[in-house]
Design brief:
Layout (H helix, E strand, L loop, with lengths): L3 E4 L4 H19 L41 H4 L7 E7 L2 E12 L2 E7 L2 E12 L2 E7 L2 E12 L2 E7 L2 E12 L2 E6 L22 E7 L2 E12 L2 E7 L2 E12 L2 E7 L2 E12 L2 E7 L2 E12 L2 E7 L7 H13 L13 H14 L8 H6 L8
Parallel strand pairs: 1-10
Antiparallel strand pairs: 2-11, 2-19, 3-18, 4-17, 5-16, 6-15, 7-14, 8-13, 9-12, 10-11
């Protein structure tokens, strides 16, 4: 049976260590402190301390150490090497036009007069009748076989025979595990929509664990238990009996009616009340509706575990070319690069809070089908 194990690192100290390591790498690559990225937006909401903690009361799945894991819906589609993180989803509002009722549909009634005509109509002077004659049944003698004692079967049971053999059996099946990306930190991901929940920022990658086996002694069936059947034929005899050759029946004879012709007035179409519908009258009106509220979703993301430095460097070059100031293209997801990705996501109304695969495709660093 397939078994999925969620393995997560503790949140506090590990995230601080990853953040310090990323900052040190930026300094070493640039030969000095990295360029300061833009600060948070003036209208950006503060970090929300009132978000529900993971656990049974919140309905969020937990790992073995109490950290929030990707839900089963993500585990069902994830493949080894993929990473997922919670991201902030912008509310989506659309304008649409609908027809507003001005005058409702109504039903009115009008009277249609009857249509009459004179016709020659046959009239029954003497009704027809049916005479019935009963014909008795006829019989014949036939010979048939009668079972004195039915056929039977004698069953003898021969027991099964076994041999003992050594076999390899599965000790632990192959499975996949969720493991947190060591190179990812939350620093720099700033949500842009006030009032919505904030993403946790953790990234998890699905890895494969091979199966293990052990040797056991098992009995093996050499010849199964079987039943030997010996048929015993039935005992029969011939007897004569009377059977119906032709059943009794009734023969009917029809006597036709006597008809005469009379001239009468008849109604071709009776007077009737006809109901018809007067259609409703509408006029167009413009409305707005929320297609999707602001919220948090799990999305596939790129991080240091599953994205090469070349992919991140191309994304930095594209962001700089488009005016989002990702800093020096060093191939790392430093704080300035993450801030530039958030500004680009906000401008394009994409999911914010991580370097999502959707964002990478919009920047042209991943093909459409990747």
């Amino acid at each position: 049976m397939r078994k999925t194990i969620w393995i997560l690192a503790a949140a506090g100290a590990v995230l601080m260590t990853a953040s310090q390591a990323a900052a040190k790498a930026d300094v070493e690559l640039a030969g000095g402190p990295p360029a300061q990225g833009p600060g948070p937006r003036a209208d950006a909401p503060p970090m929300r301390p009132d978000l529900p903690a993971a656990g049974p009361a919140s309905g969020l799945p937990l790992g073995f150490d109490g950290v929030v894991c990707p839900p089963d819906s993500v585990a069902g589609i994830a493949r080894p090497g993929q990473c997922f993180a919670q991201v902030n989803i912008a509310p989506l509002i659309e304008t649409y036009t609908e027809q507003v009722l001005v005058t409702p549909e109504r039903r009115e009634t009008r009277t249609i007069p009857a249509v009459r005509e004179w016709v020659d109509q046959p009239v029954v002077a003497v009704p027809g009748r049916v005479e019935r004659i009963v014909v008795p049944a006829t019989y014949r003698t036939v010979m048939e076989t009668v079972v004195v004692s039915p056929a039977t079967v004698r069953r003898d049971v021969i027991p099964a025979q076994y041999d003992t053999v050594s076999v390899q059996e599965l000790a632990a099946p192959a499975h996949t595990e969720w493991r947190r990306s060591d190179g990812y930190t939350r620093a720099g991901w700033t949500p842009s929509y006030p009032g919505g929940p904030a993403a946790t920022g953790e990234i998890y990658c699905l890895v494969e664990v091979p199966a293990s086996y052990r040797t056991v002694q098992r009995p093996v069936l050499r010849s199964p238990e079987r039943v030997v059947e010996t048929p015993i034929p039935a005992v029969t005899r011939q007897v004569a009996r009377q059977v119906v050759d032709q059943p009794a029946r009734t023969v009917e004879r029809t006597v036709p009616p006597v008809i005469r012709t009379e001239r009468v007035e008849r109604v071709v179409r009776p007077e009737r009340a006809e109901s018809y519908v007067v259609p409703a009258v509408y006029q167009p009106a413009t409305r707005e509706r929320a297609v999707r509220p602001a919220g948090v979703e799990w999305r596939e993301v790129l991080c240091e575990r599953n994205a090469s430095p070349e992919v991140i460097r191309r994304a930095q070059n594209t962001l700089n070319a488009w005016g989002y100031d990702a800093g020096r293209p060093d191939g790392t997801l430093n704080g300035q690069t993450r801030a530039a990705i958030v500004r680009f996501q906000h401008a394009q109304r994409l999911a914010e809070g991580a370097f999502t695969v959707e964002t990478a495709r919009m920047l042209g660093v991943l093909p459409a089908g990747a």
